[in-house]
User: Which sequence fits this backbone?
């Protein structure tokens, strides 16, 4: 048997066994939990993915910005308009960066300063002051291309030639291979040099049957990313890309960082 067909046979055999078990789905990554989940903050990463690669200490402050070219996936998938919240959580949970906000949080900060200048906010004791913001030493930009193709006829033809599996040819015609190709680009804001780049990819096979997904995938963090197989694939691909990026970050010398956020542990809270 051709090596590629042999590998496909193993995959399809697993599918047949799964289908024989009353069509129950099985997800291994994170034991059925979310791929990107948990929290990050002063207490460190909490309930982060066990597969997440981490740094011993942050190397710089970083701002995450939207890809100017947008994200290539169909609106029919009903996914959130941007994967940026997923990447922001990964960046903070890994401990590789101090994340500064250049989106809604920044706009609200500016709004608070405007209210103070307009006399709406208190003057004495106010912590909203100009000149206290931290600069973004690096910029991290994600990109994403999502694709889906019908592979049912090709796989169904192979299954039709294999005893035992040939009874599942009808199911095989529903097979779709879903691919997410993502990249993370890291730029030094002082020199404008792109100092690191990484790619991530994930492929899963969906055999229909109530949305069963074959492959080691769980859910995904954030509203909309755990509601579909497409969202799960995209989240897993960004986790993969982040882990690839960490390998490069560990070789970088840390920049001079601003003071840490006050906490009870460092005596500032």
Assistant:
């Amino acid at each position: 048997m051709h090596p590629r067909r042999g590998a496909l046979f193993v995959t399809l055999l697993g599918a047949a066994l799964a289908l024989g078990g009353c069509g129950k789905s099985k997800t291994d990554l994170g034991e059925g939990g979310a791929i990107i989940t948990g929290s990050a903050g002063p207490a460190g990463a909490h309930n982060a993915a066990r597969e997440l690669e981490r740094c011993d200490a942050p190397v710089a402050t970083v701002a995450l910005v939207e890809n100017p070219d947008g994200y290539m996936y169909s609106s029919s998938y009903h996914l959130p308009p941007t994967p940026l919240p997923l990447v922001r959580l990964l960046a903070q949970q890994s401990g590789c960066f101090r994340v500064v906000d250049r989106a809604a949080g920044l706009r609200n900060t500016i709004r608070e300063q405007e209210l103070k200048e307009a006399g709406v906010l208190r003057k004495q004791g106010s912590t909203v002051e100009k000149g206290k913001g931290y600069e973004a030493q690096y910029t991290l930009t994600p990109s994403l291309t999502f694709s889906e193709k019908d592979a049912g006829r090709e796989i169904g033809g192979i299954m039709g030639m294999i005893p035992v599996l040939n009874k599942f040819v009808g199911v095989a015609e529903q097979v779709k291979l879903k691919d997410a190709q993502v990249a993370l680009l890291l730029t030094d804001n002082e020199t404008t040099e792109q100092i690191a780049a990484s790619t991530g990819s994930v492929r899963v096979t969906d055999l229909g049957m109530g949305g069963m997904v074959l492959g080691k995938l769980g859910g995904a963090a954030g509203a909309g990313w755990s509601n579909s197989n497409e969202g799960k694939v995209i989240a897993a691909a960004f986790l993969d890309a982040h882990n690839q990026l960490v390998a490069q970050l560990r070789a970088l010398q840390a920049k001079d960082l601003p003071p840490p956020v006050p906490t009870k542990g460092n005596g500032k809270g």
Remarks:
- Helices lie at 3-20, 84-93, 104-117, 152-159, 169-172, 229-249.
- The radius of gyration is 23 Å.
- Residues 229-249 form the longest helix (21 residues).
- The chain has six helices and six strands.
